[in-house]
Amino acid sequence: MSNTLTETPEAGVPADARADQLRALLDGPWRELRERFRAEIEPQMVLGEPGRSIEENRARVTAQLLSLAEKGYGRIGFLTQYGGEYDYGASCVLFEMQAYGDLSLTVKTGVQFGLFGGAVQRLGTQRHHAAYLEDIMTGKLLGSFAMTEEGHGSNVQRLETTLTYDVEAGDFVLHSPTPSSIKTYIGNAARDAQMAVVFAQLIVPSGSQGVHAVLVPVRDGDGNPLPGVTIGDNGPKAGLPGVDNGTFFFDHVRVPRENLLNAYGDVAEDGSYTSPIEGENKRFFTMLGTLVRGRVCVGGGAAASAKKALVIALRYGTQRRQFEAPGVEQEAVILDYLAHQRKLFPRLARSYALSFAQNELTSRLQALQGEQAHPDEQGQRELEGLVAGMKALSTWHAIDTIQTCREACGGAGYMGENELGQMRADTDVFATFEGDNTVLLQLVAKGLLTEYKETFSDLDAADLIGLITRQVGDTIVEKTAGRAGLQKLVDAVTPRNDETALDNRGWQLWMFRERADHLLETLGKRLRRATRENAFELFNNAQDHVLEAARAHIEEFILTEATTAWQSMPKGPARDLLDKVIDLYALSSIEADKAWFLEHGRLTDKRSRLVTASVNDLCQALRPEVDTLTRALGVPEQLIVAPIAQ
Ligand SMILES: Cc1cc2nc3c(=O)[nH]c(=O)nc-3n(C[C@H](O)[C@H](O)[C@H](O)COP(=O)(O)OP(=O)(O)OC[C@H]3O[C@@H](n4cnc5c(N)ncnc54)[C@H](O)[C@@H]3O)c2cc1C
Predict the structure, then answer these.
(1) Atom 27 (ligand 1): residue with closest C-alpha?
(2) Which end of the chain is less crowded, N or C, counting CB atoms within 10 A of the terminal residue's CB?
(3) Which atom of ligand 1 is nearest to the CA of 144?
């Protein structure tokens, strides 16, 4: 680690070499795909144009999707025996790279290859794979993923659409029984989908079996809705103008029995139901768990968009001049103002840290769900929690960063040609789809507090919370074990008081861990008082605490992964530069949560003021490195078309 916070760039080491080294580290395990994308992708393949109508945007996006599919980009996440490449992690990385282009296209391809295709692959079996995967990869068969209903978005276990097996006819009847059961906001629905994976309550002669997915043809060859299917258009939205979001309403639509995506539950001809998984709850969450990739993609895509915004704003910041400094003829460059650095550098540092955490998530996803995957319930549970939390924090980071970058570019940032306005509008909804962020953070906390197997029993809320609280002790032990890799760094920090250098990574990690552990332990203590009667109220009254605990856990994960990546670098100037970047991430995070650290005695008043001074120092120290740091992000140059960033 660096000895001071204000070292100047290493003399004599070319900036390019450091940028290359950092880029290789940021690119992570799928560097080759990222490089291929950078080399192959031309602007017209993935960019849009400002000021176009909804119809023009939709037509352009569909054409671009088909052209990407033609080049084989649709095959990356699919099973090899059906013509795919089955590199699951790579499909997430591709989503990230596409997010440097038009986000409508990114989302549209995400719906087609990720949500629709992914559900057919993950929830379906050989008969569905053989019949549909090739056409899905090539874009010959366009489809939707129809889960959300007007009445239920976050609480999808309570969907109202029914899928009832008719023993005499030997097929299903798909029905939307109430106005609020209309499927809505569904990507690909309004214009393009020929089929949809529809989520509905499965009803067989023995009773309801909970939510299942079924493949439903929705349009004929001429693009007209099939009998019994009413398709609507959500119309203009706050962003993503090229995605045709719409509605489906089903009136007693007949669906062949074979169309049930039956990996986790099947209905025989005589109407008997079988499933390899006992219990409706466990089955439902297992099904959702197999679809976790969508959240990895959305978090990574949002973070990529934030990086592009930072490149635009930082480049503009190095050129734009306002107000003269005494004794200097020219006006000052705006990035030389501390206030401007304060806007952009902490967010740049956080982008770096998030990249390392995102790479780790993608690798874990590949290990657990890729071609060579080994089933690992504990690993899957951890992954689901991390993915939910990272999705929330990455998308919020993107929304905040893109808005800040827009402001940092003044009026120019508001002009359509400079890209930031559309990016801001498009990333907004990333906080909502693939799981509302607030709801996701609650999942993270519940996961941390709950032992795996019991979560899946069919328990009511009081039982669950009772279990949650009994498990707190074990959870802490488990977390501690997972931290072994960096324990030496933390242990080396003695004493942990005002004498410890602020740029001591061990101290920074200790602070993040202290916060995460304390929040979790005290949450457990609060919930331990739960009874069947007061469980809902108790949990509700602790919701702010729940969210803080989840957030602190994910922040610790981010710093841990950033530290691990930094440690993997050979000693030298690139590593020293990254060290400063991680210092800035850690200290600006501590600064943002000063109130908590002060209230809980982890910072003294004096040290708290020093944290702020150090953040200022680091911003100024990184100012001469802006070119290296932005180039290292690896945003494809041809996709930065904003005139202010040239
Ligand atoms: C552009 C767009 C594209 C989409 N594409 C698809 C798609 O292709 N397929 C699909 O199936 N769905 C899609 N969706 C739907 C999306 O997944 C849902 O909108 C999302 O899950 C949130 O559900 P909701 O809109 O019903 O919000 P709600 O669940 O009603 O949430 C509203 C608010 O209530 C809060 N809230 C809810 N529950 C709690 C709680 N327990 N505690 C505290 N606060 C709570 C939330 O934080 C949120 O702020 C899309 C949505 C949009 C906008």
Answers:
(1) 153
(2) C
(3) 8
